[in-house]
Amino acid sequence: MATIAFDSHKIIRKLKNAGFSEDQAEALTDALRSTIDNADFVTRKDLQIDLAPLKSDLAVIKWMLGPTFGLILGGIAALILKTFF
Predict the structure, then answer these.
(1) Are 34 and 79 in contact (CB under 8 A)?
(2) Model pTM above 0.85
(3) Could you tell me the residue ranges of all domains in the chain?
């Protein structure tokens, strides 16, 4: 899937500026790096590839039901007109 890159030195520096000790900042950054390395992130491209077949199937279904839906609405309208007028 996707690779996430981050500047660990910048994170450590921000944590130290926020009041963390050097050891705490490094430990938290290592934990964050480990978590990100073990995660499966999905990119927009991954979604486009996986959803492409669904989109084409939906287009076919819309194409198939389009005329049928029009006929059903026309039939209902004709029945209503015949019943009340």
Answers:
(1) no
(2) no
(3) 1-41
